[in-house]
Design goal:
- The chain is mostly helical and about 70 residues long.
- The protein has one domain.
- About 45% of the residues lie in helices and about 10% in strands.
- It has 2 helices and 2 strands, in the order ββαα.
- The chain has helices at about 30-35, 35-60, and strands spanning about 5, 15.
- It has a two-stranded antiparallel sheet with strand order 1-2.
- The relative contact order is 0.12.
Length: about 70
């Protein structure tokens, strides 16, 4: 699943499992109804990884320190 989501013209959030053609997507509800638990698990893992990465980035941004370098000419 390279591209995780996209929004259809009607506003539905569609997911794109690897086995679908590039121009097709499926809702979370339909994945569950179809018993496609592996795809749901992969979506959950990717979303959790993204959430953790964003939290880590915010943590790093909050801890920024200003370092002043002097211009020293010899």
């Amino acid at each position: 699943m390279e591209r995780l989501t996209y929004v259809a013209e009607n506003g539905e959030v569609l997911f794109h499992p690897a086995d679908l053609p590039d121009d097709e997507g499926i809702t979370i509800t339909q994945l569950a109804k179809d018993g496609r638990y592996k795809a749901l698990e992969e979506i959950a893992e990717r979303l959790a990884n993204r959430e953790q990465a964003e939290a880590k980035l915010k943590e790093m941004e909050g801890g920024k320190r200003c370092i002043v370098m002097e211009d020293v000419s010899i």
